[in-house]
Specification:
The protein is of the alpha+beta class and 449 residues long. It has 16 helices and 16 strands. The strands form three sheets. It has an eight-stranded mixed β-sheet. A five-stranded mixed β-sheet has the order 13-12-14-15-16, sandwiched between helices. The chain has a three-stranded antiparallel β-sheet with strand order 2-4-3. The protein is elongated, with a radius of gyration of 28 Å.
């Protein structure tokens, strides 16, 4: 019989498991926790859209559209694209689903996105993003809200040290147009010395030359006129309001006058949170104000500002998360005990306790499973315990063991878990405080939670 060859994982994709998955989950959990603090609503949008959604919003000439999108024709003959980012799809939904009536909207989303690019550390062809948007708010306060949200997320993840918020303004339409004209004149005067990519950008996307990494372009880009020379009073006031708001909220930032966004619908604030801990891929979170985007998709002119962050890059920076603890593991010995253990297991889970069963091997192997799961308690059930309507409840932290009636087992474990969680929370504040609280509870001086 011929051996069947198993297809391999497609290049640029990943199977996320074990420690890597725990880091990944920690990022998503922190994101959901913080978005609730900031009163952002969760929205989920399709993984694929009509190609025009991304071609119009990202620009026909950008690398993402021209080189990186996964685009195909479906059976109906329509051009479909797997989403390379979230903002365009959210903007499309805002228009087509009639969400204008709910504006201003504070929205988040997360999930897989797809770009056909060269895989490298922290960069995949199917990767995952966090996304946050404020749509329908023209005030600088919306920009501040998003930036403070991002700053707190990085702090919640414990990775803020060494990450810098770089901030710039692209001005209003009048500012941007005047600056763009001056840049075109400057780069035209040096056309012969520019890289091939920058020459191609000169006609269609000249602002992108400012962030070129090609050594041939750097001296020319560094000597280009800055946006501040063309800033209108209104645009300057907007940027000042954003920086004042960040200062008031205690968010540190630094000005990067060369930070740009190439497409015309971007306005005012542009920002990146950058680090040197990820090698060449130093941006961990980036965004800006896109007041012209929804209009470019055929909707009413509507202001918007947002950011996106790669889950993989954030997860790479995390320390190894502590594995979650299981509240109890059932250790049955014998067929009758195993059957009763199924009832106990279901009752514990219905009562909100995490529980599993060690049903294989001798007692030693079953207890080893409880230890491997970092269980707080082992619930040991044998023929003797069954005859008395009891289980032997063993605290795996201190080794104490006691007989507990089966009908009160769930309540006993629940109360013990709550005590342990209270002590652990106190210990995070101060180890001495945790020890004192534990002693107080055991002596009856402090009432149990």
């Amino acid at each position: 019989m011929a051996r069947i060859e198993t297809p391999g994982r497609i290049r640029g994709t990943q199977d996320i498991f074990g420690d890597e998955q725990r880091r990944f989950a920690a990022v998503l959990e922190a994101f959901d926790r913080v978005r609730k603090l900031y009163c952002f609503q969760r929205v989920d949008i399709p993984v694929f859209e009509a190609t025009a959604v991304f071609a119009r919003s990202l620009g026909e000439t950008t690398d993402v559209v021209s080189k990186e999108m996964y685009t195909f024709e479906d059976r109906g003959g329509d051009s479909i694209t797997l989403r390379p980012e979230f903002t365009a799809g959210i903007a499309r939904a805002f228009i087509t689903e009639g969400w204008q009536q709910h504006a201003p909207l504070k929205l988040v989303s997360s999930g897989p996105v797809f770009r056909y690019e060269r895989p490298q550390k922290g960069r995949f062809r199917q990767f995952h993003q966090l996304d946050a948007e404020v749509i329908g708010a023209a005030e600088p306060a919306a920009d501040v809200e998003l930036l403070v949200f991002a700053d707190q997320l990085l702090k919640e993840l414990g990775i803020a040290e060494g990450i810098t918020l770089q901030l710039n303004t692209l001005g209003d339409a009048e500012t941007r147009d005047a600056w763009r004209d001056a840049l075109v004149r400057h780069f035209e005067a040096h056309r012969g010395a520019l890289s091939e990519d920058s020459v191609a950008r000169l006609d269609k996307n000249p602002l992108r030359i400012l962030d070129s990494k090609d050594p041939r372009d750097r001296p020319i880009a560094d000597s280009a006129p800055g946006i501040d020379d063309f800033m209108t009073a209104e645009a300057g006031n907007f940027f000042e309001a954003v920086t004042r708001g960040l200062d008031a909220a205690g968010v540190a930032w630094t000005r990067n006058a060369r930070l740009v966004r190439g497409l015309d619908y971007y306005r005012h604030t542009a920002f990146e949170f950058v680090t040197d801990r990820l090698g060449a891929q130093g941006t961990v979170l980036a965004g800006g104000r896109y007041d012209g985007l929804i209009g470019s998709l055929g909707g009413p002119e509507t202001p918007g500002v947002g950011w996106a962050a790669g889950v993989e890059r954030l997860a790479m920076m995390l320390e190894e998360p502590a594995g979650s603890r299981v509240d109890a593991v059932i250790v049955p010995m014998g067929d009758a005990a195993a059957l009763k253990g199924q009832w106990v297991l279901a009752e514990l889970r219905r009562g909100g306790l995490s529980a599993d069963m060690a049903f294989r091997g001798n007692m030693k192997r079953r207890m080893q499973k409880a230890d491997a799961l970092k269980a707080r308690f082992a619930v040991i059930i044998g023929d003797d315990e069954l005859s008395r309507g009891e289980a032997s409840l063993k605290n795996l932290d201190d080794g104490m063991q006691a007989a507990v009636p089966l009908e009160t087992l769930g309540r006993e474990i629940y109360e013990a878990v709550q005590r342990a969680l209270t002590i652990e929370a106190a210990a995070r504040v101060s180890p001495a405080f945790g020890e004192a609280l534990a002693r107080g509870i055991s002596l009856g001086i402090v009432s149990e939670p």
